[in-house]
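Many introductory courses stop at the sequence. We go one step further.
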Amino acid sequence: MAVSDSNTPEFSVSELANSLKRTVEDAYGHVRVRGELGRVTIARSGHAYLDLKDEKAVIDAVMWKGLVSRLNFRPEEGLEVICEGKLTTYPGRSKYQIIIERMEPAGAGALMALLEERKKKLAAEGLFEASKKRAIPFLPQVIGVVTSPTGAVIRDILHRLEDRFPRHVLLWPVLVQGEGAAAQITAAIEGFNAIDGSGPVPRPDVLIVARGGGSVEDLWCFNEENVVRAAAASDIPLISAVGHETDTTLIDFASDRRAPTPTGAAEMAVPVRAELMQAVRSQSERLTRGLMRLSEQRRAEFRATTRAFPTPAVLFGPARQRLDLAAAVLRPEALRRDLQNRSSQMSKLEGRLRAALERQSRGGRERLVSLMRRFERAAPTKALERCRIPLEQVASRLSRAGERYLTASRLQLGALAGRHALLGHESVLSRGFALVRDEDGRLVRSTAGMKPGGRLEIEVADGRKGAVVEGGDGPMRRKASGKKPPPPQEKQGRLF
């Protein structure tokens, strides 16, 4: 084995790498570097691996998870930043890199450039389109507020709502700047949208995302993509009230309405109750006056129309008279009298007809006998035969006409008798009913006309009997008898 003549110490690779690492860290234990972010990679572990570059050189950089989560902006390619940390080497790759302990944008200009670039990107995706904006409910029942629970913002909102129109308010407390603020705001918007209203917590009708004024860095969490996307995807109408009137964040473009201040958001959410009450009173008065005018107009038109029509007395007078006449005709007493009169007339006509037929028959016989005698005296056999035939025909016709007239009269009399049997009270009495009259012969229709001890006349189907009214309202007392009660009779039929 060859032996070197040099006195230079010999190092292993690891020894040399570690020596270089110590040298670099000792010489550059704390550095402040300004540059543009190139490659930016967030690993699953949460660590950030990125490049710092300018127009001539590139330095690798690493930022550990805990520091990344505390950034109030998201590192992106092209952003100019100022980093503080220490320079070290990575022996496994023979590379040097900066371990970043603090990072901030290189002035407001860089942040605004990043903001403008992000705005163009999200606008190209359609998140800011006016057609996607929803109308704010006129009078929401529940208002969800996403803000800090300890700041003046929530107090201003509650006081303004109390002055205008008190509503039920649900507060979702979040950080409004610094580490984790964007994630909490996103979770609050999505959480409110996840409420279905079937449980004890009602679903808000409108959301307010609010924060007081501050610098660009303080308001940067409202420019983060996750916050903007959550606001644009919200099914509940959303009002953004971030910063003062001159402050603008990306959530303002994604929200349905932008308020200049948190107090202005409360004013957009609800109307003024006093103004509404005054408007309702005004509308009610106008409606009342209009209805009164319309009522008077209709009343005048009705009076003018009714003058052209006859009165009810004139309209119903003839019909009422016909009804009275029909009622008088259809009374049983009137029907009975009419039937008796018609029966008497029929009897008289039948007697007169029989007498007339007998007279005609006798006269015919007498004339026939006289003719026969005349023919016998003259002995005109053929002439007698010619005369007898017409006479017999005349007699036959007279007999048939008389029978037809008697038959028609009997049918008419039978129809009248049927009407009398149907409408007369005798048919009703034959079915088991009774007709009660007082001492004066008047019909008794109720017990109010019966006095104890009074005499009554009871008419049944086969005759009439007298009776005396007993006292009390109970059923009729029967005397005890050894006879068995009569067998039950068939159920009484209907009157009509």
